[in-house]
Give the backbone structure.
Amino acid sequence: MIEITMPWFGMDIGGSLCKLVYFEPKDSTKAELDSEVDSVRNIRKYLTKNSAYGKTGHRDTHLQMNDIFIRGRRGTLHFIRFPTSEMKNFLALAKSKGMANFVTTVCATGGGAYKFENDFQREVNMKLAKYDEFDSLLKGLQFVDRYNCSECYFWSNPTDEKLCKKEQYDFSNPYPFLLVNIGSGVSVLSVNSPSSYKRISGTSLGGGSFLGLCCLLTGCNTFEEAIELAASGDSTRVDKLVRDIYGGDYARFGLPGDLVASSFGQMNSREKRSKVKREDLARATLVTITNNIGSIARMCAKQEKIDRVVFIGNFLRVNPIAMKLLAFAMDYWSNGTMKALFLEHEGYFGAIGCLLQYHQ
Ligand code: ADP
C-alpha cells in the first residue's frame, strides 16, 4: 500500500466539535500532479469543491486563507468542523471517499486524538501524530496573526449598546497577554512570550454548559438555535437585579440598579416562572455563563498584572452578544484599564498549530 508522507491535515478533536484544517498545496508541478494517486486527487476535489460534508460537516469558507507558506509549499488553508459525536460517520465518509486506500499521517490534538486513535488506524489507515493542545493553540495563533493583519479585533464603546461596534486591533506586539479559550469548558493561559506560557485557571462552566443548560430549559437542539433564542430574549425577567432588591442603585458601593445580583434569582417564584419565555431563559443562560467567565478572566488578568485579554473558542462563534458582554465587563469592572480582544479564526488555532508542528 502507498504511504503518503505529507501530512496536510491538522485536527483538533475537542469535547464538542472536531476542527479540521486542510492545507491544499497550490504550487504542485505537472509531474507531481500526474503522479498523484487517484484517491488523493479525489479527496482534494471533494474537500475543496464542497462546503457541506455528510449531514453535519461544514467548511467555514469565510475563514479560508490563501497564499500561505507551510514547510516551503504555497497553498490554501481550508477550515472544516463537525460535531465530535459524529466521529463514526465522519470515518465512514472518509473511507467511502477512498481515504483507506493509502497510509497517511494526520496531525492531531485535543482529547479525541487519544480517544479515537485506534478508530482512525482501523477504519482509514491513518496514523495520528499527536501534539499538546495548548502548545498547538499558541503556535496556531502566532501563525495566523502574522499572516492576517485583520485577525484581531475589539468592540469599541462596549458600555453603549448603540455605539458599540467591531474594530480592528493592531496585535503586532502582543506580549504579555491573557488567553481565555472558551470551548466546552474554559482554560485561562498567561502568555509572556512566543515560547513561555502557563495555564493559570479554568472553569467547567463553559460553552458546553451554556448549550446543555439551554437545551434543558428551552427544548432547543442546536447551538445556532440557542443563540437565536437568546438574541430576542430578556434576561432581566429571569435574573434578580440590584434594583429588584434595593429599588434602585446600591450607591454606597457603586453597584448600579441594573446589575445582576442573582443569576436566575427570580425563578423561585411560580408566578414569574409562568410568565417567562424560552427566549428569556436562553438569554439568561448566555448572560450567566458569559459573565462568570468574564469575572474569572478579570481576576486572572489582575493577578498576572496583564491588561489585554484575548478570548477565543467556538463558544464565541456567531455570538456577538457574548463578545459584547465580555468587552463590557472587562472595560467596566477595570475602570477602562483592561481590554477584551477577539480573533477571527476563534476555534481553529489548535488545529492549525498541530499541523505546523509536524516534523518527519
Ligand atoms: P471543544 O474543543 O471543547 O469542542 P470548541 O472551541 O470547539 O471546544 O467550542 C465548543 C463550544 O462551541 C460548544 O460547547 C458550544 O458552546 C459552541 N458551539 C459553536 N458552534 C457549535 C456547533 N455548531 N455545535 C456545537 N457547539 C457549538
